Amino acid sequence: MTTETTFADVASLVGTEIGVSEWLEIDQARVNLFADATGDHQWIHVDVERATKEIGGPIAHGYLTLSLIPYLSKDIMKVSGVTRGINYGLNKVRFTSMVPVGSKVRARQKLLAVEPKGPGLQMTSEVTIEIEGNPRPAAVAETLSVIYP
Question: For the whole model, what pTM was predicted?
Answer without folding.
Answer: 0.92
